[in-house]
Amino acid sequence: MNPFAYITHPDCARHEIAPGHPEQPARIASVDAALRGAPEIAAALSAIEAPLAEPDSLCLAHDPDYVSTLLKLEPAPGEFIRLDPDTAINSYSLDAARRAAGAVMHAVDEVVLGKTARAFCNVRPPGHHAERDKAMGFCLFNSIAIGALHAIQQHGLQRVAVIDFDVHFGNGTSDILRDHGNILLLSSCQYPLYPLDEVPVAGRSEINIILPPESDGNAFREAAVSQWFSALEAYAPQLVLISAGFDAHADDPLAGLNWQADDYAWVTSEIVRLTGAAHGIVSSLEGGYNLDALGQCALAHVQALIA
């Protein structure tokens, strides 16, 4: 068994919202360079090309009319079609978003079938703001939600944990998964911050850590120990999916928390420790907009995944 799968695709570095936008193509290269620059990681990286998710698979999490309408959009080369004030697509975007969803689904297959123990998907656009019938917050298709529902419907899993430590609340993931009987949803976020107008009310199997601006990694660690970990251990998930956003880092330009790379290493190590008997762990890139910090945090995360 290959102990680690690294899934990416060149299309994910061609999607662009607008020139100079912080959700930029260079994010993929920054993560890739950081991982390949670490000898112990580089030796484990045999990149798998992310497949295109089929429309029926996208409909696991999204309304069919939404999927059909979005896939009919065809921006000309150099053109941008705006979907909301924060979200636009170019001629590569829909393929990139389908690759991102396809990466997570393929990673789920590899892990559940025992071909690999853990996987990291270096893909974009991010997905956790995409709701059932709405693109928003840079996101088109909710890759993690699609992967979780794929694991349940295709592989018959009964207990899937979804963990989202992006600095922004994963409203789309909550919208799609919060009341699903086979999913435990754990998230952390800064409040107040996009997309929240008020503190979210948790679903029946959802635990949200809400952190005020300027919170450091110690505040998150204390909250994770007191609010997440006993629930995660008791749940004994068969599969863990991670929305790996690295924008809670102190240097990130789009938020106001003060985490460091060590905090991502710590939470990842704790997830690995608490779910060691699980079928495996699939992680997929969400936010992170300071390129140097993004590379450092992704490296710390992957090092902990493969330890």
TrEMBL record:
Top-level lineage group: Bacteria
The protein's name: Histone deacetylase superfamily protein
Histone deacetylase domain mapped to chain residues: 21-305
GO biological process: epigenetic regulation of gene expression
GO molecular function, one term: histone deacetylase activity
Species per Swiss-Prot/TrEMBL record: Oceanococcus atlanticus
UniProt record similarity statement: Belongs to the histone deacetylase family.
InterPro entries: HDACs, His_deacetylse_dom, His_deacetylse_dom_sf, Ureohydrolase_dom_sf
